Amino acid sequence: MLVSQVMTKNPVYIDPDSSLIETQSLMDKEKIKYLPVLDKNNTLVGIITREDLAKAGPSGATTLDMYEISYLLSQMKVSEVMINKVITVDENETIEEAARIMADKGIDSLPVMNCSVLVGIVTDTDLFNLYQNIFGERHKGVRVIITVDEKPGQIAAIATAISERGGNIVSFVSCEGEDVAHRRDTIKVKGLTKDELEMIIKRIPGVVLDDIRE
């Protein structure tokens, strides 16, 4: 899956000369945590987050009242607080590579580029939504976790056994097992009862049932 298929397209952005109070208001209105910063030439020059706003404001121990705090934020510009060295990702990059970058860099969002043009933003929320989709979380069915011998033909054998009994796989996720000789698969199936799927799985050679639930 590519970043372009997961990202939020045409993201809301802000000008570097905007005040922090304007930035906070825009984030509240749009219910977002990140704002790319574009200059008058629509060039990406930074990114600002709610965390940046919190750091820019007075500490919790301040004696300023709410009006004084608002005035302070209205005098500070985005350009004074934003992150200048923005890490970006190309729209044709894979989503797993984008997730790796975010994890390695400890960031929650990536502006998405088409050459030098901002076309989207991918955030931790987008990844969480994708995670739910991959695992078929919003589909009804029976969910099974199995440990499978690492050898050719295992996935085909599992899919065939399920389909022959009228089951339909709506989600199949495979990852590394506890050792190199095994993989751990999570499958969600419609059209079969929990008991029926359990019986099918237990009859497949080289497969161990770890968990099953509706």
Model description:
With 214 residues, the chain is an alpha+beta fold. The chain is 35% helix and 29% strand. It contains eight helices and ten strands. A four-stranded mixed β-sheet has the order 1-6-5-4. Strands 8-9-7-10 form a four-stranded antiparallel β-sheet, with helices on one face. A hairpin with a 2-residue loop joins strand 5 (109-114) and strand 6. The chain is elongated and about 70 Å long. It starts with 7 loop residues before the first strand and ends with a strand.
Count the DSSP helices: 8
- Content-based structural category: alpha+beta
- Write down the overall mean pLDDT: 91
Q: Biggest sheet, strands in spatial order? A: 1-6-5-4
Terminal-residue CA separation: 28 Å
Shape: elongated
Low-confidence stretches: 59-63
Q: Strand percentage, roughly?
A: 25-35%
Radius of gyration based on Cα positions: 24 Å
How many beta strands in the DSSP annotation? 10
Q: Tell me roughly what share of residues is in helical segments.
A: 25-40%
Largest sheet: 4 strands, mixed
Succession of helices and strands = EHEEHHHEHEEHEHEEHE
How would you concisely characterize the structure shown here?
It is built from eight helices and ten strands. It has 214 residues and is α+β, with helices and mostly antiparallel strands. Strands 1-6-5-4 form a four-stranded mixed beta sheet.
